[in-house]
Amino acid sequence: MGAHADGGRPEPAAGRMDVAVVAGLHADARAAAVARLLATVPGSVALHHDLSTAAHGTVTRTVRDAGGVLSTGEAPLVNDCACCALREDLVPELERLAEGGLTRLAVVELWDSVEPKAMAEVIAGHGSDALRLSGVITAVDPSLLLPYLANGDDLMEAGLAAAASDQRTVADTWARQLEYPPVLAVLESEDADAEDRALLAQLHPTARQVLIGHGDLAGAALGGFDVEAAAAAQHPACALLPAEADDSGVSTFVWHRERPFHPERLYAALEDLTCAAARSRGRFWLADRPDTLLAWDAAGGALCVENAGPWLASLPDAAWEMVPPVRRAAAALDWHPEHGDCCQHLVFTSPGLDRDGLAQVLESCLLTDEEYAAGRAAWKTLPPAFDALLEV
Q1: Which positions fall inside the CobW C-terminal domain (predicted)?
Q2: Cystine design at 141: which of 29, 221, 258, 295 (Cβ 3.0–4.6 Å)?
Q3: Minimal CA–CA distance to 327: which of 243, 257, 236?
Q4: Domains and CATH numbers, the chain
Q5: Cα–Cα–Cα angle for 253, 255, 258, rounded to 5 degrees
């Protein structure tokens, strides 16, 4: 990689075009971030697929540079799915730009509700050697952070669905957009206060925040991106969950225990726990499913619970060789001499968080000493309260 005369930024590898993904439901912040990249990276263009035209049977594609629109086109829907049309059209269009030899950086500006993880994996997994995924960025207006995170409306109701079958909400979509990339492009907003900035820092503490107006956004877009590491950081078994924090009225509460939940008591407390924080996530252990790692993901007053596979402690030794090293390392951090990596690890982040109240509810859902002493065979006979949520 050579140096570039405009400040030592990396040059694209010979014969390859850099591709940076810019995502986010905050449309004004996203537009500002893209405009900044086009203005500061010579030979850059922006590629955008407008999914709002899907009702007419097509997705509209626009390619532009800092001077204006270069070309427009249409991509037909695939199985009545706008997001599928984007997937089908994106890589061929990027390869066409790369073959032209005139584009140094292609900025893929994702439509409002499209999530960066899916598109980053499409580009990295299906692109040719002519493309290098050089960065993934979500644009944020801090003053809108909490309103979007608290918005439990369905994307369909908000006119933001990416497919006819899209069942996501504004809140859970925004949470994933925010927490996936290593870089956040932050709009300088007069409406943002210290609480907004503290919430942003606590929701994604490892992110590099770059101010759109005068930060080195180009350097962030060209710095490189590891798709596998980003996916691992989001996996419930080895997610890089936030740590304890308390700043400007915003708190992050980390709750870690090495005893399973009673399924009925936890189920009865779900509404209280889900609504206790603007955002909560992690992994948990149910007594009636002692070998199953369950994922907890809540935003906007709605909770998603998923089977994330087995706890490593439940696997035979021979199966460990098939487990990714990052997963084994994460399990080692939580390893208990009696029950291995089985544990409760839940993180709640919110303004005005009632830590004591949360802890009291969570503790009340654990097995009692008597229930715990009865052993796994007895645990498995407890009422399976989560079957409906897990669609068993």
Answers
A1: 250-366
A2: 29
A3: 236
A4: 17-234 (3.40.50.300), 245-379 (3.30.1220.10)
A5: 170
Q: Which of 235, 249, 252, 205 is nearest to 346 (CA)?
A: 252
Structure tokens at 27: 């449309």
Q: Work out the average pLDDT over 362-368.
A: 98
Q: What is the DSSP string of 108-128?
A: EE--TT--HHHHHHHHHHH--
Cα torsion at 279, 281, 287, 292 (round to 10°)?
A: 150
SS3 call for 155:
coil
What do you get for the CA distance between the two ends of the chain, in Å? 51
Shortest CA distance to 116 belongs to which of 136, 131, 134? Answer: 136
Cβ(152)–Cβ(302) below 8 Å: yes
Task: Kindly report, residue by residue over 201-258, the tens digit of the pLDDT.
Answer: 999 999 999 999 889 999 999 999 999 999 888 888 887 789 999 999 999 999 999 9
Placement of tokens 């905050």 in the chain: 26
Q: Find where tokens 């949520």 sit.
A: 389
